[in-house]
């Protein structure tokens, strides 16, 4: 089996995963759209736009030629933004073969169709969705490239594919668990970005730790409701892809979603926030998708609803929080239907 792995594309997370693979002595080829970025990675071993001040392993080779990146690779890791996933997967189809392991590490939905990234990739490649692997969990690129201890999860309906991905990435600082609930892992990874936006907005408004703790906790309940309605295992939301990723994304200075929410809370417009970030903030697109999903499945998502009004209908952030606090009385523990409880406890 070839030691070559292709990574598409060279953003911060794609570069960080390439660094993990390179430290595992893989032959790593990173595909990028620009000659300038490819030249920087090859000659200076840096990617300063996305990971300033970091020196990359010398066994990472960058190219703008997707055929050169993918040819003879044992695995392809796709880390394109959700908005570009269908285009990148479509370009991959010409160079992909069904012996290659396909892993994606993108957290979001295709906005128009509300499809998960594994579905989009499978449609473009013409393969079974169940053979694709999703990588998720609490993992800031800025810490991974510095080899800080990190733990993630890889999920696939195909246990052999998940274990192959585990073997590919696992090392002394990057611990990898497997999970069969690909649906739950993808939903949790996408939906937690909404709650992170809300936590950042709360901090930007100066509301303190009590408010943020409430947002995170009720956010988990919100994620769980929609996940169960769509058929995910509720236990997945208590794991690395759920609580783990939510905590790190909703509390860390490295989180784009938290930073974007904080700026919104300080009074900046969405256009100002996105312009100053200079990188994709997946939570913005996911909020729009979740607003539609909540209506489609008849699931209450009050945090996502209020953020939708702030992001796309110019509602004042303070007014949105007051809207959440002013909702009618509720019980904390929503009852799980008996048949659902029995499904996951037998």
From TrEMBL:
<feature type="binding site">
    <location>
        <position position="257"/>
    </location>
    <ligand>
        <name>sn-glycerol 3-phosphate</name>
    </ligand>
</feature>
<dbReference type="Pfam" id="PF07479">
    <property type="entry name" value="NAD_Gly3P_dh_C"/>
</dbReference>
<keyword id="KW-0547">Nucleotide-binding</keyword>
<dbReference type="GO" id="GO:0141152">
    <property type="term" value="F:glycerol-3-phosphate dehydrogenase (NAD+) activity"/>
</dbReference>
<keyword id="KW-0560">Oxidoreductase</keyword>
<feature type="binding site">
    <location>
        <position position="139"/>
    </location>
    <ligand>
        <name>sn-glycerol 3-phosphate</name>
    </ligand>
</feature>
<feature type="binding site">
    <location>
        <position position="280"/>
    </location>
    <ligand>
        <name>NADPH</name>
    </ligand>
</feature>
<feature type="binding site">
    <location>
        <position position="255"/>
    </location>
    <ligand>
        <name>sn-glycerol 3-phosphate</name>
    </ligand>
</feature>
<dbReference type="Pfam" id="PF01210">
    <property type="entry name" value="NAD_Gly3P_dh_N"/>
</dbReference>
<dbReference type="InterPro" id="IPR036291">
    <property type="entry name" value="NAD(P)-bd_dom_sf"/>
</dbReference>
<keyword id="KW-0520">NAD</keyword>
<keyword id="KW-0443">Lipid metabolism</keyword>
<feature type="binding site">
    <location>
        <position position="141"/>
    </location>
    <ligand>
        <name>NADPH</name>
    </ligand>
</feature>
<feature type="binding site">
    <location>
        <position position="245"/>
    </location>
    <ligand>
        <name>sn-glycerol 3-phosphate</name>
    </ligand>
</feature>
<feature type="binding site">
    <location>
        <position position="282"/>
    </location>
    <ligand>
        <name>NADPH</name>
    </ligand>
</feature>
<dbReference type="InterPro" id="IPR013328">
    <property type="entry name" value="6PGD_dom2"/>
</dbReference>
<dbReference type="GO" id="GO:0046167">
    <property type="term" value="P:glycerol-3-phosphate biosynthetic process"/>
</dbReference>
<protein>
    <recommendedName>
        <fullName>Glycerol-3-phosphate dehydrogenase [NAD(P)+]</fullName>
        <ecNumber>1.1.1.94</ecNumber>
    </recommendedName>
</protein>
<feature type="binding site">
    <location>
        <position position="256"/>
    </location>
    <ligand>
        <name>NAD(+)</name>
    </ligand>
</feature>
<feature type="binding site">
    <location>
        <position position="141"/>
    </location>
    <ligand>
        <name>NAD(+)</name>
    </ligand>
</feature>
<dbReference type="GO" id="GO:0141153">
    <property type="term" value="F:glycerol-3-phosphate dehydrogenase (NADP+) activity"/>
</dbReference>
<feature type="binding site">
    <location>
        <position position="137"/>
    </location>
    <ligand>
        <name>sn-glycerol 3-phosphate</name>
    </ligand>
</feature>
<keyword id="KW-0963">Cytoplasm</keyword>
<feature type="binding site">
    <location>
        <position position="50"/>
    </location>
    <ligand>
        <name>NADPH</name>
    </ligand>
</feature>
<dbReference type="GO" id="GO:0051287">
    <property type="term" value="F:NAD binding"/>
</dbReference>
<dbReference type="InterPro" id="IPR006109">
    <property type="entry name" value="G3P_DH_NAD-dep_C"/>
</dbReference>
<feature type="binding site">
    <location>
        <position position="33"/>
    </location>
    <ligand>
        <name>NADPH</name>
    </ligand>
</feature>
<dbReference type="GO" id="GO:0006650">
    <property type="term" value="P:glycerophospholipid metabolic process"/>
</dbReference>
<feature type="binding site">
    <location>
        <position position="107"/>
    </location>
    <ligand>
        <name>NADPH</name>
    </ligand>
</feature>
<feature type="binding site">
    <location>
        <position position="107"/>
    </location>
    <ligand>
        <name>sn-glycerol 3-phosphate</name>
    </ligand>
</feature>
<dbReference type="InterPro" id="IPR008927">
    <property type="entry name" value="6-PGluconate_DH-like_C_sf"/>
</dbReference>
<feature type="binding site">
    <location>
        <position position="192"/>
    </location>
    <ligand>
        <name>sn-glycerol 3-phosphate</name>
    </ligand>
</feature>
<dbReference type="GO" id="GO:0046168">
    <property type="term" value="P:glycerol-3-phosphate catabolic process"/>
</dbReference>
<keyword id="KW-0521">NADP</keyword>
<feature type="binding site">
    <location>
        <position position="256"/>
    </location>
    <ligand>
        <name>sn-glycerol 3-phosphate</name>
    </ligand>
</feature>
<dbReference type="GO" id="GO:0008654">
    <property type="term" value="P:phospholipid biosynthetic process"/>
</dbReference>
<feature type="binding site">
    <location>
        <position position="13"/>
    </location>
    <ligand>
        <name>NADPH</name>
    </ligand>
</feature>
<feature type="binding site">
    <location>
        <position position="256"/>
    </location>
    <ligand>
        <name>NADPH</name>
    </ligand>
</feature>
<keyword id="KW-0444">Lipid biosynthesis</keyword>
<dbReference type="InterPro" id="IPR006168">
    <property type="entry name" value="G3P_DH_NAD-dep"/>
</dbReference>
<comment type="pathway">
    <text>Membrane lipid metabolism; glycerophospholipid metabolism.</text>
</comment>
<keyword id="KW-1208">Phospholipid metabolism</keyword>
């Amino acid at each position: 089996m070839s030691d070559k792995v292709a990574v598409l594309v060279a953003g911060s997370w794609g570069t960080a995963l390439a660094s993990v693979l390179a430290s595992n002595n893989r032959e790593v080829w990173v595909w990028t759209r620009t000659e300038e970025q490819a030249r920087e990675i090859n000659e200076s071993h840096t990617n300063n736009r996305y990971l300033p001040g970091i020196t990359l392993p010398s066994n990472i080779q960058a190219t703008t030629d997707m055929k050169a990146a993918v040819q003879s690779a044992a695995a392809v890791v796709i880390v394109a933004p959700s908005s570009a996933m269908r285009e990148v997967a479509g370009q991959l189809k010409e160079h992909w073969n069904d012996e290659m392991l396909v892993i994606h590490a993108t957290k979001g939905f295709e906005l128009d169709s509300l499809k998960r990234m594994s579905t989009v990739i499978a449609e473009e490649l013409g393969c079974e969705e169940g053979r694709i692997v999703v990588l998720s969990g609490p993992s800031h690129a800025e810490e991974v490239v510095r080899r800080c201890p990190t733990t993630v999860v890889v999920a696939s309906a195909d246990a052999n594919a998940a274990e192959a991905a585990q073997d590919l990435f696992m090392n002394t600082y990057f611990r990898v668990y497997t999970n069969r609930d690909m649906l739950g892992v993808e939903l949790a990874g996408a939906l937690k970005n909404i709650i992170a936006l809300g936590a950042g907005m709360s901090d930007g408004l100066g509301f303190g730790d009590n408010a943020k703790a409430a947002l995170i906790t009720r956010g988990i309940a919100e994620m769980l409701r929609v996940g169960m309605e769509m058929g995910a295992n509720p236990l997945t939301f208590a794991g690395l892809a759920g609580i783990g990723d939510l905590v790190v994304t909703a509390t860390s200075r490295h989180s784009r979603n938290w930073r974007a929410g904080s700026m919104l809370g300080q009074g900046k417009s969405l256009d100002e926030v996105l312009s100053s970030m200079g990188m994709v903030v997946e939570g913005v697109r996911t909020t729009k998708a979740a607003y539609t999903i909540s209506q489609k499945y008849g699931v209450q998502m009050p945090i996502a609803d209020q953020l939708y009004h702030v992001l796309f209908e110019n509602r004042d952030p303070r007014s949105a929080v007051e809207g959440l606090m002013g909702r009618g009385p509720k019980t904390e523990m929503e009852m799980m239907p008996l048949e659902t409880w029995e499904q996951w406890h037998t």
